[in-house]
Amino acid sequence: MDFYLIMKYLFLGIFQGFTEPIPISSSGHLLLAQHFLGIKDTTLTFEILVNTASLLAVLIIYREDILRLIVNGLGYFKQKTPETKRDFHFIIYLLIGTIPAGVIGILFGDVIEEHLTSVITVGITLIITGIALWMIRNLRGRKNDGDLNVKDAIIIGLAQAVALIPGISRSGATIVAAMASGMKAETALRFSFLLYIPVSVGVMVFGISDLMGDPNLASMAIPYTVAFIASLIASYFSLKWFMNIMAKGNLKYFAIYCVAVGAAVLIFT
Question: Which residues pair with 183 in a beta bridge?
Answer without folding.
Answer: 143
